[in-house]
């Protein structure tokens, strides 16, 4: 067996150390740099949803108005001005002065308003109608719409009356 003394091992280590410095090393690379441009265009956008106005049971002989409320919810990009208008509905002969729910050919007059006092008829801004407007925040903006079936419609026969009103948000 071959026995190397400690001093001989140290001498071998000292002699091997300079050999490590002679090994090839990776050369340092040069660097280059640039910038990366990033862009996007945020567009004005809006969505609208509705909650129905359900008048429930109407007694035309009671002599009182039947009121109910529903609404719209508008969500627009932050800073986007918007305006919500309403059509007259689909009942035969409907107008902003008197919208009409239908049950077959039978009609029940009603109207939609933007205020709880039911003095501002919601429409398209023509005549005496008003629109709802605001500026988007990026969050949902609920708007209450008030409905009224006026009293005095004693000739209306029993039935299930309904109507559909178009809601348009312009932005």
Structure write-up:
The strands form two sheets. This protein has a five-stranded antiparallel β-sheet with strand order 1-2-7-5-4, with no helix packed on it. It has a three-stranded antiparallel β-sheet with strand order 6-3-8, with no helix packed on it. 15% of the residues are buried. Helix content is 9%, strand content 32%. The model has no long low-confidence stretch (mean pLDDT 90). It is mainly beta.
What secondary-structure arrangement, pairings included, does this model have?
Layout lengths: L5 H16 L24 E6 L14 E11 L4 E6 L12 E5 L2 E8 L18 E4 L4 E10 L17 E4 L1
Antiparallel strand pairs: 1-2, 2-7, 3-6, 3-8, 4-5, 5-7
Largest sheet: 5 strands, antiparallel
H/E topology pattern:
HEEEEEEEE
Mean of all residue-level pLDDT scores: 90
Please provide the count of β strands: 8
- Judging from the principal axes of the Cα atoms, what is the shape? rod-shaped
- Terminal CA distance reads 96 Å
Low-confidence stretches: none
* Radius of gyration from CA coordinates: 39 Å
Structural class call reads mainly beta
- The proportion of residues in beta strands is 25-35%
- What is the tally of helical segments? 1
Major sheet: order of its strands? 1-2-7-5-4
Q: How much helix, percentage-wise, in residues?
A: under 10%
């Amino acid at each position: 067996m071959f026995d190397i003394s400690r001093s001989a091992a140290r001498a071998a280590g000292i002699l091997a150390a300079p050999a490590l410095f002679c090994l090839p090393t990776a050369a340092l690379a040069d660097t280059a740099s640039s910038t990366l441009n990033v862009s996007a265009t945020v567009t004005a956008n809006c969505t609208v949803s509705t909650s129905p106005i359900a008048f429930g049971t109407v007694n035309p002989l009671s002599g009182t108005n039947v009121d109910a409320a529903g609404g719209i919810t508008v969500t627009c990009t932050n800073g986007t001005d918007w305006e919500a208008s309403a059509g007259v509905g689909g009942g035969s002969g409907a107008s902003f002065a008197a919208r009409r729910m239908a049950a077959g050919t039978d009609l029940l007059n009603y109207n939609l308003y933007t205020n709880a006092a039911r003095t501002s008829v919601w429409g398209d801004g023509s005549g005496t109608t008003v629109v709802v407007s605001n500026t988007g925040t990026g969050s949902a903006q609920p708007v209450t719409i008030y409905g009224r079936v006026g009293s005095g419609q004693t000739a209306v026969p029993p039935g299930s009356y309904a109507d559909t009103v178009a809601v348009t948000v312009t932005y």
